């Protein structure tokens, strides 16, 4: 199928998001100009501004798209585990799936927010994703019966962040396995709530 026939059937919004995902994630938000995204998507400039309003609007939509994909990947992985404790460790298995992708280029949210000004919509989109990961760890830790689920979640989140950095900087997809092992040690040492003993 040719690009033109495929483009004729794919809505402009979807083509712009696909192009943004490929270019922003691969090269960086600030490096890639809006004209390159438009050209790559094969749409008119008006389509971008009518759909997203600005480059910042497109970047936020791209981050929301990445957030949804992460949420889906983690949810799919967690269905393989029965207990909340296993699911806590399963989050690192889901992370490992991302690390083995040849196109893995680090955390899209860290990269985009590092280039964005303080208080921007891009920073808020990145924070929303980070809050979601922390909330997930907190909910699972509480369900598993740990005495201090918020503190345990913060520690697990640090392992999660560290694994992302190691996977990208060291080109080491096994970073998730290492982080999973450290998380298991952390869970073994963490006190359980009285009701869970």
Salient structural properties:
single chain, mainly alpha, about 75% helix, elongated
Strand content: under 5%
Order of helix and strand elements from N to C terminus: HHHHHHHHHH
Gyration radius, in Å: 19 Å
Q: Count of DSSP helices?
A: 10
Broad shape = elongated
Q: Note the gap between the termini.
A: 61 Å
Helix content: over 70%
Low-confidence stretches: 1-7
The assigned structural class equals: mainly alpha
Biggest sheet statistics: none
Question: In words, what does this structure look like?
Answer:
Mean pLDDT is 94; it is low at 1-7. The chain has ten helices and no strands. It has helices at residues 3-9, 12-27, 34-41, 45-52, 55-78, 84-99, 108-115, 121-143, 149-169, 175-189. The chain is mainly α and 197 residues long. The protein is elongated and about 60 Å long.
List the SSEs and their pairings:
Elements: H1 3-9, H2 12-27, H3 34-41, H4 45-52, H5 55-78, H6 84-99, H7 108-115, H8 121-143, H9 149-169, H10 175-189
Helix pairs in contact: 2-3, 2-5, 4-5, 5-6, 5-8, 6-8, 6-10, 7-8, 8-9, 9-10
Report a brief summary of the structure.
The protein is mostly helical and about 200 residues long. Helix content is about 75%, strand content about 0%. The protein contains 10 helices and no strands.
